[in-house]
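Good morning,

Attaching, inline, the backbone tokens for the sequence recovery test we're adding to the shared suite. The designed sequence is right after.
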């Protein structure tokens, strides 16, 4: 790829030199509303107009892409906000999981007492037992 770009560069330089040698005549450039005229070689006028066209095309391309750049900035800020929220939720989840008892651990005494009291007050809220005498 590097060789191809160098060959194309040399080709354009060669074409530019050929245009400069072939079109060395002086041209008077009149700027209409102004009373001035500028005398310059024709190749210089051609190169200046090509450069002006390239700059105008780059400027219009940049101007046309402003909506995409703004949308990309908005999306990037939204992604950063969502990543912060995910990190916060992961931290919250990790903290809750650290507080939950492991299923194999014994239940604290207070929890057992609360379960017995609720069974006495509202036995219909307790899940049915799965013993052999279930009717």
């Amino acid at each position: 790829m590097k060789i191809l770009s160098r060959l194309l560069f040399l080709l354009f330089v060669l074409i530019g030199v050929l245009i400069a040698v072939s079109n060395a005549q002086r041209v008077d450039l009149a700027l209409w509303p102004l009373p001035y005229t500028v005398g310059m070689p024709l190749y210089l006028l051609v190169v200046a107009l090509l450069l002006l066209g390239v700059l105008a095309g780059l400027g219009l391309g940049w101007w046309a892409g402003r909506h995409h750049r703004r949308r990309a900035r908005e999306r990037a800020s939204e992604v950063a906000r969502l990543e912060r929220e995910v990190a916060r939720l992961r931290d919250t989840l990790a903290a809750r999981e650290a507080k939950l008892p492991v299923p194999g651990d014994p239940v604290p005494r207070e929890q057992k007492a609360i379960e017995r009291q609720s069974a006495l007050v509202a036995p219909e809220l307790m899940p049915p037992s799965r013993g052999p005498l279930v009717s």
